Amino acid sequence: MKTSITFITHTATPGGAELALARYIEGASDVDVEVITFEDGPLWRDLESSASAKVIVLRGGLLGQLRELRAAMKRRRDRIFIGNSMRGSFYMALAQDRLTTSLYWARDQLVASSMSRVAVALTRWVTLTRVSGCLANSISTERTVRTLKPRLDTRVVYSPSGIAADDTQHSRQFAARPTRLVFLGRLAPWKGPDLAVRAVAALIAQGHSVTLTVAGGPLFGEEAFDDSLRALAEELGVSKSVEFLGHVAEVRPLLDRHDVLLHCSTVPEPFGQVIVQAMAAGLVVVAADSGGPKEIISDGVNGFLYATGDLSALTATVRSALEGEPSALQSLSDAARERARHFDDAHCITEITQAVVELGLKEAALVR
């Protein structure tokens, strides 16, 4: 008998959490899945049209949506409910009753440096108080959950990043030293794309012939920041060396055209799907040494780490990679592909389902 799971999400914007959920649903053939969403959009419509999941869109204003959610949850007492985002989990916690089996999928660092103090407080005193258990997308995220609720049953499960088993099979050849850098991700201040632009400007000033591709777009009202990045490239005199692509749907072809990924989050990255994607493609990854990236990368073995938020350290680390011998970069690239195999989608999906079933059955037994 299939396990019945209902995911609750507040948005249809294709951010990391939403894309990871879509990958899970598409790959989890042994569960019965539906999505309840506060916002309609192509991501959820595509899932429903492909028969991967039933999608229920809550209509009206927020209060009406919460009433509709509460009624829907009461009609589905045999299902395990999972909040797919901080806000979605908060709404779920408000709507559920004591007979509900619910889990919070923590995809954010639950600390004031990563979100507002109000958000941390609401998550601690409402969401984590009412849910039955928690899924965390990294050991780092799990620690922040346990700091707020030490006794909550929490399991670490890594997000599906779009990695198939054969994506790591092809060795990347470094016949010459790398010159093509890429920043891939949402254009938000905390993601640090401005650090990537500044680092490239510093490297060019030092005589390195490099280019930077910035791939990604603003998702949550961050268009002004996007504009400021282009202005920054002009101001630093590197506009001809920095290309802005906007959102890129097909990531692998983009990665295959580059040598080095710059991952520049200025606060701890909860996990780092982009890092796993780049490692699977054999790129040299340079990432901040906190959060999920520190769990994924062994510094100097399968990638490079630098002090979070430190432009000088980022520039020096990238320069070291650019000046590395091709044979050393080849070894690092091969080790990166080997590490990425641990995060292939099939493996992640199996572990997620297993954790959901274990946590859900445990709570169901207690309720009954």
UniProtKB/TrEMBL annotation:
Signal peptide extent: none
Keyword terms: Glycosyltransferase, Transferase
Record carries keyword Transferase: yes
Protein name: D-inositol 3-phosphate glycosyltransferase
EC number(s) from the headed UniProt entry: 2.4.1.250
Gene (UniProt): mshA_5
Coiled coil: none
Domain Glycosyl transferase family: from-to ranges: 175-338
